[in-house]
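[READ THE FOLD]
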Amino acid sequence: MAIIRMTTHNSEKTQGIVLKAMPYKESGQLVSVYTLQFGKMTFHARGVRKLTSKNAPSVQSITLSEFELTPRKGISALIRGNGLQFYRHIKEQIECEIVADYLLEYVYRYEEENHPDEEMFMMIKNTLDALDQGYHFLLVYLLINCFILKRNGIDLEVDGCAICGNKKVESFSINNGGFVCHMHNENELPDFTIQTLKALRHIYKCPMKEIGKLHIEEEELTKLMPVLSYYVEEYAGIRLKSQTFVKQIV
């Protein structure tokens, strides 16, 4: 992961996904984006709250755009923007928009400025593409949480018993961070069936770009949701305001 020198007198073009936009001064906005070239950054978009602004569509939340800007350390300056993908299906479905906001809030609050990471950029894009294409919002949410856990160095054992390595497992242990066999099953999650364990393993090992390979019943997704949410909050220490809204749509 390289740190890009931001201060330049030249304009640069880069693709970016809008994380958050806030009113600034009389008619402008401060726009936080995750870009392919510069990572997370903030720029001043002058006049985009005017009805006549040609740049306004490109700085909407949950939008992939191409930006021409003058990169600076701190707040950069937008020259022009061109919207590439507006993810209209996401914005028409409240559940999808809430899940998209969950990931965008994570990136906005926990990713460092000026640290470009192609994996992070593609994770955001693949997530928005999946939601826009109509994949189940809970499945996308669980994949996001698995990504967050791995990015924060938290690994779950989903190949065998987390205590003895036995491949014949029958439940999941929150305290031990993975599957457990009959000998070590303390019945923490009595509603977890073998089908639920298989669903967790498939989800945990599947990158967002391969979501089309997953075919999991909504009942299993609902069972997994509180477990992965708990790990993100209590083990990774990631607490997001949008999590409140996620809980309301289940």
Notes: The radius of gyration is 20 Å. The chain is about 35% helix and 20% strand. The first strand starts at residue 12 and ends at 24. Residues 128 and 168 are 36 Å apart (CA to CA).
